[in-house]
What does this fold into?
Amino acid sequence: MSASKRPLSPHLQVYKPQLTSVLSIAHRATGVVLAAGLIGLVYWLMALAAGPAAYADAQRLLGSWLGKLVLFGFTFALFYHFCNGIRHLCWDAGLGFEIETVYTTGWLVVGISIGLTVLTWIAALV
It folds into this structure.
């Protein structure tokens, strides 16, 4: 028998990404980002405990443009994961499974996450 050139299962290129699948993947990715961000938190706490010189170095790193960009992304990941977690809790209670509600709450999660991130950074910079 000759080997078939057909794929064995549908490939990702076959399907158009849907909001539900994108948000699900983003929820998992933000969970990974939050777990990795704990390394940064531990670094900052260790610098705080190590004394003024180490703390100043940590503050300089986190205050750089790259540090602020990472912290901004971490802030968004925190709010997104939190808001989408609330959405999942509603699903666990059997609420919000209608397709229109799923899409509405999905866009709400994205909008609220962006809004809370921006508001947090505005408050932090004032």
